[in-house]
Amino acid sequence: MNSSPTEAVVVGLDTSENARVALEWAADEAHLRGAVLRVGHAWSMQAYRLPEAYKTDIREDARKAAWTFLESAAEDMRKRHPGLEVEPELIDEAAVEGLLRMAANDSGLLVTGRRGLNPFMTVLLGSVSEGVAAHTPVPAVLVPTEGAPDPRGPVVVGVAPGEPEPVEFAFAEAERRGVVLKVVRTWMYPQAFPGHVAVPPQEEARRTAEETAELEKLLAPARAAHPKVEVAVRIELGLAEEAVVNASKDASLVVVGAHRKHTQHFSLPIGRVPHRVLHLAHAPVAVVPH
């Protein structure tokens, strides 16, 4: 680990099992990067339906309890990686706003659990992880409760046309881990009828050649910057989210881009493919903003 870390990995912590897994993943990543680990824990009196006078009486005790929980978790990470610099911080504002504020200050990565304390409310109300993914100024990693299927598995990146940001991030992560980088690209063809796609052989060959040429052009700068990374490219007919999720079964990390310019009012503002990958991938998912 570097003796003088210059960037930070920020992680959100609550009392859920998933948050603890995310904390450990973030600590491992900070150690790998030689970075400071900043742990944010949001606390609030709003959950207590008490008169304001009573809230004032218990506020200090509640804050002390929150700090004890946070510092205990921070100390566990110091023991996990001796020498790791860990900075705990109580978040007085809402969790999403607090984590985004922390991430905006010399941070290279923002990490949360995929599910929080109330996963059943995710679809209706959104969650901290979804809010972070939608608005983060830096790459954000959402970690499932199961962690990574294989910590030494490949890094998987889904690459859409004209999207260099996740490519560079994925190459750097694969190099940092010393693992293979799997690059996934898909293309679609009109269905003859629902559920059936018949592509003439000449058309399939033409499209595959076009996708290969465009993809290799997009990969070229990152290949040059990270010549030691072994790259496996897969181009196939089908849904992008399905291909990426299938490739994540043995992955250490999945990387996707946030397509915020394609936002629709009824969907998470990062695009359809990243949204579905976040919910269904078997490994931690990094969302890289444009």
UniProtKB/TrEMBL annotation:
Residues 8-144, 156-289 form the UspA domain. Signal peptide: none annotated. InterPro entries: Rossmann-like_a/b/a_fold, Universal_stress_UspA, UspA. It comes from the Bacteria. Belongs to the universal stress protein A family. This is Nucleotide-binding universal stress protein, UspA family. The lineage of its organism: Bacteria, Bacillati, Actinomycetota, Actinomycetes, Kitasatosporales.
